[in-house]
Each structure stands twice: as C-alpha cells, then as structure tokens.
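Q: I have 412 residues here and want to know how they pack in 3D. Can you give me a structure?
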Amino acid sequence: MSTTSTRTQAQALGATAALALTLASLARMRRPTHTPTATAAVAPESRRVQDSSVSYAAKISPEHCDEHGRVYGGELLKFIDVAAGVVAAKHAGGPCLTISVDRVIFLQEIKVGDVVHLSSAVNRAWGSSMEIGVRVMRETSDSSRTQYCCHAYLTFVAKPPLPSSPSITTSLLRSLSLLPPPPKPRAQVPQLTPHTTLESKRFLLAGRRRAHRIQGRSTSESLLSAFRVQLLELERLHLLLQSEGTTEEEGGISKEQMIAGPVDLIDTMVMSLWIVRPQHCNSKQILFGGTLMRWIEEISSVAARRVAAHCPWSSAAIDSLSFRSAVLPGEVVYIRACVIKEDRNSPSPKMRLVSEAFFSLVAVDPVSGRPMRGGLRPVRIPEGAAQTVAAGADKRREERLQDKRILQRVYA
C-alpha cells in the first residue's frame, strides 16, 4: 500500500472521529433536561366574539323532510354542524373537528318550504378546544315572522399544525438515539374576551357545561361500557332466536298483542351500516359529524317503530352525543339502536360504536299531525346495566323539560 493511500485513510478516520465527537457534543448541548409530551403553540392573541360569528339562512327542500313534510332532525343537525364548523375554523385559524354535541331540544316543527336562520358564535375557548353555540330560527313560507326553534352547543377541537421538517443534524442525532423523538404538536386556539353582558353570560354557562360534561363522562363511562357488552350479548341471542325461527313475528303472537302487548328490549334492537364515501366527508376527508347524526336518527326511528309501528316518528331531542374517533372514506359505520325507555310518546333509543347518544323521538298522529298520547307498547328491560341506563331516562327527561322551559322563557 502506498504512503499516499495510507495518509488518505488516516485523514478519513480522523474526520469520522471528529464528526462523531462533534455530534456527541451537540447532543449533550441540545439534549433537554426532560422529555416534553407535546409542543404547545404560542397562545394567539385573544379575539372578540364578532370576529368569527356567522349567520346564514337555508331553505328546507323535500329531500330534507320525511313523507309528511317535516324536516328530519338529523338534517337540521347537519345544518347546525356546518354553521358551527365554519365558526370554529375562523376562530382557530385552521381545520377543526366536532367532538361532542350537548343536549338539543327541538321546540318548533320545521316543514318543507320553510327558511331556517342559523346564528353561531364562539362561547368560550380552552387550550385546543372551544364551545360553539348555534341558534336556529324558523321563517314560514306564508309569513316573514321568525320563530325560535332550538339551540345547540357543540364542542370542537383544533387540529394541530404539521410539524416542521428537522434539520439534517437533528435527524442524524435522532437516528443515533442521541436526541429524543420529536414531541407531538398541539394546537392552541385564541382565548375569547366577552365584551357584552350576553357574551359574559354565555362565557360563564359554557364553563359550567364543560364541567358537567367532564363529570358525567367520568361517572357514566363504566356503566355505558357494561351496557355495550350486554347489548352485544343480547344481539347474539337475537340472531340465535332468528335462526331457530322463534322470533316474535313467527312465534304465534296475535295482531292485538303486536299493537298493545309489551315488547322485550331484544326485539327493539336493530342494526344498520353505511359505507363512508367522499361526499359524506369534509375537506380533510373525515366523516361529517352532521352526517353521522342523520344516520343515527334514521336507525333510531326504525327501533322506535317496534313500540308503535302504525304512526310516523319525529325527533324531539338529543342528549350529549360524543364522537370517540374519526371515520375515514371507505370505512364502514355500524350503528345499533334499541328502545330503553318508553314514556307515553317518547322512547329513547341508545346508539353506540363510533359515537354514543340518547335520542328522544315523538310518535306523531298521522291524521292530526299532533303528538300521540298513549298507545305505545311497554318495553321489558333485562336485568343488569340496561336497567340502570333505562332508569336514567326519567332523570334525562326532567332535565330536558327544565331546559325546554328555560329556552321558551328566554328565546321564544
């Protein structure tokens, strides 16, 4: 081997050793004293309510209504979700996702040809989440006078920004395990500064609703988990009975019993599925929360027909719908529903899987168009978590009626 070649190899080894020492020194200088769990963006400046508030009107078309010309509650929730989503994106300065919907009570019937006016604004912001309030007014086709229909409160979370590309030195240090992996980015939405008395009240009430949601989530999670397990067991039993030909329809039940006799919870259980397509999703290719609400309402009405099949059903209220995970195009959404409580004319089917909620439906007289009184089949609830969940229906009903009286006194 020549002297020149030996000198070249020595220089290369020296350069490699110097690079390793340099990287080790950089690692010691740049290694943090603790590993952060998330990178919180710098808090933006506080904003006013009017900076992101939105108002718009939409005409109700036949495709938004049932065969009797009444708007589907799910279609109205889609309008509400869009209005709130626009406000959330404006306030956060980027895309946002719906994570929950508080109780919604429908006070006025909306029919085909009516115009709905939606006003939405931010009530309060916390870190990466915010509450959006939406008010819905109805304008009939024969009058320019508007009527108050409902209020909705939705919680949105801002999507975190994409992390910046690391430098070559940082990438090399992380590949050599000399630097910890990058922390997850975290979005930070601007805080809200109320300026009027009404905005201050909304700000305060939003905090109370958030505390109530957190408390309710911690206390009901174990119960709902047990209820989900029981529903799956009942579903397997129902499929077994169907395969053996011993379902209610084939068991010799008379027509009078089908109309007035009691019905087991297992016989009110229904399941449906939808394939999520691009038209069901937003610009970020995630299923619209409003679309999922419409699907849940549809399967709820099918379950409600088991306690009164001779009349149409209309949505009356929705209780605390939460979204557990995002749904992408091409995925299949399974929705299960069953009646857990009949109360004169308002059974409350229970939905689960991607989201969980309690829907209240009203049986409508097909002749007069008014809510029916009586005539619903009582539901037999099996022992276990199902009875505990059904027992909470009375408490939810009292809370809905109280909220309804407050809304009528303040807005109607």
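Q: Anything worth noting?
A: The chain has a mean pLDDT of 76. The chain has eight helices and 15 strands.
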